[in-house]
Amino acid sequence: MFIIAVVSLTLQFSTTALLSILGRAPRWRRVRWFGAVTLTAGLYSTVDAFAALRAAESVNTSWSLQFNLVFATLHGAAWLVFTYMGPNGRWDSLPPWVRRITIGGTLVALIASISGEVASAETSMLVVPAFDVNFQRSTLSLLGNMLALVPFGFLALSMYRTWQLRMLGEPGTTAVFIGFTLYLLAGIEEFLVAAGVVQFIFLGDLGYVCVVVPVTLQLFRRFRDDADQLDLLTDHLADEIRRRTDERDRAREQMLEQQRLAALGRLAAGVGHEINNPLQYLQFTLEELRECARGMENADALTMIEQSFEGVDRIKQVVEDLRTYVRPSDIELGPLDLREVVRAALRVGAPQWRQGITITTELEPVPLVLGHEGRLVQVVLNPLVNGMQSMLHANDPKATSMQVRTGTTSRGWAQITITDQGPGFDGDVVSRLGEPYVTTKSLQGGTGLGLFVSRGIVEAHGGTMHFANAPSGGAVVCIELPPLDDERVLPLSTSTAVTAEPPQATTVSLRVLMVEDDEQALRALLRGLEAEQLQATGFTHGADALAWLDQHEVDVVVTDLMMPGMSGWEFAAALAQRHPLLRERLVVLTGGASTSEAQAFVEDATLLVLEKPIGRAELATALRHRARS
To answer: Residue 233, Cβ neighbours under 10 Å: how many?
Structure first.
């Protein structure tokens, strides 16, 4: 009996220590109550061990009956709480009736044990010849026998709860139910031995082992499942971290790219402004020279002046292309099928294809896009010409074909992919393609502006342009544009053309105030407006113009946008405060908006914004329209 008790208490106390550590985990709070089960069972076995030693010395062990009754009741109460406890391990998760009978039964057992009425005054001999057991022992009183039914009731309810969980399909409950059955039988045997009905050794400790082993295995199985799940979650978390890190890196690269493009845009706008100002008075001066040449009937001079106008137009177009990065051009837009854009680009570039270069197409249906056909044809034509030139320069007889494909991306965007068999892009250049003056054709005279302008046009349409090298060799250019109904399409503005109208003789001369910081441009503008029969007054500073307006009246006010001291939008704000009616007739004549404030100002729908350079007749007509409106 001593050996059985020592083995049992060793198992119980070691299990209690293990469960006290395991119960600290948030998902394992319930096992603390199983720790209470093993602790009370260990205390019960400890009493049995001491009682066995004292019985061998023929000492009265009636005290053991009192302690065992208390520990057995606490043990049964712990089982009841453990089986009915919720996963969170909280006392308030128990059904109210479980809490009531647990507290009531435990208090009754404690009070009865303290009173000393559990053991009777009589003793009896316990003789078990098979185990060479022969000693005198104390027996339970009538009250003790009645109180012994309390822990049996707790165990029976715990056994019933285990059966319910088994019927619900909880893993491991079948073995636990069998263990409870053996435990209950061992408890009945121990009660009969203590009552003197049966002559045998106490088997309660062995019965406990029968139930605690399957419960422990059930917990370890759950622990293994949690460990496996934790391992899966760890792998998933590692994958998620890698994915999020890649997304963060890509987002950072995109942000840096956007910042770089924004800086390029500001640079392009500033360059455009500085070019357009002298281009404006150059155009007005050329118009004056053309009139003088006509008066002198000098054909050669007229020819040279017309050629100069062509140069002005070419410069104007280059500046307009550069300013694509700042804001979209004022162009007419419409729904486009990118397959038709590709066909148009192939037709336009047909004279440039040299002998030996073939272009194959795979034009699958794509969503319609909102765009300007001429500009997008220019975008497609640029990599076609670049690819052809790179293959011819490589002089490889096997590299003689290019391929153009259209398709739809995974996000539903329309896509054009152009692949050649040339040497491809240099590794240190491919990430910078699309920046100004970055080219792979420096030896062939490339300026690096073609892809820069093309990329700006694509981004003005809300799309993206990517460059890469094909795995089998050659360059790959991918153009992606959002579908027509996609909200990510940038709204490209449209403008209404102003046609020149000859001034009528009966029309009162229009009074115009001009604010332009470039003195030479101001003189040219004033001369041009006077030639168009307008009364024009000009100032190079906005403050001077406002002071002059306090004493004079005009019909229309024209201001430059980017000016030192007082900018165009600051001048407009002051004009609105001092002369609100003139603010409604304000015209902005600009060479480009290079700041966010300037861009926001020119997007005001109440303004008439005219781009430099502009012809004097067109400018005069626009001012007359503004005055009438």
So the answer is: 12
